[in-house]
Amino acid sequence: MFDGLREKLGRFSDDVEEDVDAEATDEGEADADTGEVDDTAADTQPTDSDAIDDTEVAAESADGTAAEDAAATAEDATATAEDATATAEDATATADDATAAGESDTSSEDASDADRGVAERAKLFATGKTVIDEDDLADHLDDLELALLSSDVEMSVADEILAGVESNLVGETRRRLQSTGNLVQDALREALFDVISVGQFDFEDRIAEAEKPVVIIFTGVNGVGKTTTIAKLASYLEDRGYSSVLANGDTYRAGANQQLGEHAEALDVPYISHEQGGDPTAVIYDAVEYAEANDVDVVLGDTAGRLHTSEGLMDQLSKIERIIEPDMTLFVDEAVAGQDAVTRATEFNNAAEVDGAILTKADADPQGGAAISIAHVTGKPILFLGTGQGYEHLDPFDPKEVVDQLTLGE
Ligand SMILES: Nc1nc2c(ncn2[C@@H]2O[C@H](COP(=O)(O)OP(=O)(O)OP(=O)(O)O)[C@@H](O)[C@H]2O)c(=O)[nH]1
């Protein structure tokens, strides 16, 4: 799942990490230069023998402080601190060379600057800050934006992710997700998690706590897998001890009755329908009465995905919402629909406020744009992913798992 986008995100992490390493090496060399300067300050001593002694002392001091500090900090740090230790070692080596050459004449204050540089770099790595140059990062962020947009991530969501990555890289990362030991990847993972996890709530808790019957209405266009999803959810609920009744509120489309009826029969759950052209609100109302009379826990009501006019459809949904006052309205669309799914989610949310979304066909290698964008754009969480045609192919949406999938392929 999401293989294309995962590859692009991986490339971004690798490229930025490479620059961070290059930057770190440059800084290490700069620190080492400072060390070179410090050591030879000893040459200003009056006698040759003093100069030799002092040079040795200065060299030891440069080694000791720089390497020891860096090594000590690096011990506390995670894997990333190893770079800093390496830098400190480089600095030590170069400082030794400089001592032998004895070529510079800067004051010993620079020694503490050098020490600070290495130690602070180690600390930065340890706390999740990087030393990447802002201009370099800007170039990489442009690449990341292209990668996201070409994978159908909505523009405002892409911007949010870029802002998140940038602030996570130049600031302190929040570390809600387990660190991968790669700062750039961690920054990206946190930024993705922020947009994907918007509004998450526990669906099962909501069902358990609500007064019965719980009424759930499904909205979304035809052909995306709405009917199949209703059936999958009935099966999912049954597995968790809840009975349900299916109601066909799609009285517009010929064949809808038969389709949902077949699922009800296959699952052996009650089914309420009216004639084609009837009032969908009345069908769902009947199903609620049936549930109340028969102690059924959950009413699952389908709605039309298309009418003569889109206003007609939206009016119908508003009427259901007004009269039935469902406990939840869930928007269903295809993960593979990308930006279209995001646009439709917004439209349906405006007509009948949704509580969450279900993305079907996540098994059909979607780009990932819809999965990343819908929650942030609508402010409502994705609750389930459809992962196949069977009734068992409905997986609760776990933002952390999706982030892992997108960044680690797990
Ligand atoms: N691969 C895959 N196919 C799915 C998934 N969910 C539904 N489908 C298939 O998508 C097709 C359309 O599903 P329906 O449930 O009929 O879609 P609908 O939204 O009710 O559409 P209409 O019947 O036209 O109203 C069917 O062949 C389903 O088996 C899924 O998660 N993965």
In short:
The chain has 410 residues and is an alpha/beta fold. The protein has helices spanning 3-40, 48-76, 81-101, 109-127, 134-150, 155-170, 183-196, 203-209, 226-239, 256-267, 280-294, 310-324, 339-351, 369-378, 399-408; strands spanning 214-219, 244-249, 271-272, 298-303, 328-334, 356-360, 382-386, 394-396. The protein binds guanosine-5'-triphosphate.
Write the layout of secondary structure elements.
Layout: H1 3-40, H2 48-76, H3 81-101, H4 109-127, H5 134-150, H6 155-170, H7 183-196, H8 203-209, E1 214-219, H9 226-239, E2 244-249, H10 256-267, E3 271-272, H11 280-294, E4 298-303, H12 310-324, E5 328-334, H13 339-351, E6 356-360, H14 369-378, E7 382-386, E8 394-396, H15 399-408
Parallel strand pairs: 1-4, 1-5, 2-3, 2-4, 5-6, 6-7
Antiparallel strand pairs: 7-8
This protein binds guanosine-5'-triphosphate (GTP).
The site of guanosine-5'-triphosphate has 18 residues, from helix 9.
Overall mean pLDDT stands at 78
CATH superfamily descriptor of the largest domain? P-loop containing nucleotide triphosphate hydrolases
The class by helix and strand makeup works out as: alpha/beta
Q: In the CATH hierarchy, what is the architecture of the largest domain at level 2?
A: 3-Layer(aba) Sandwich
The residue fraction in helices comes out at 55-70%
Name the ligand types: guanosine-5'-triphosphate
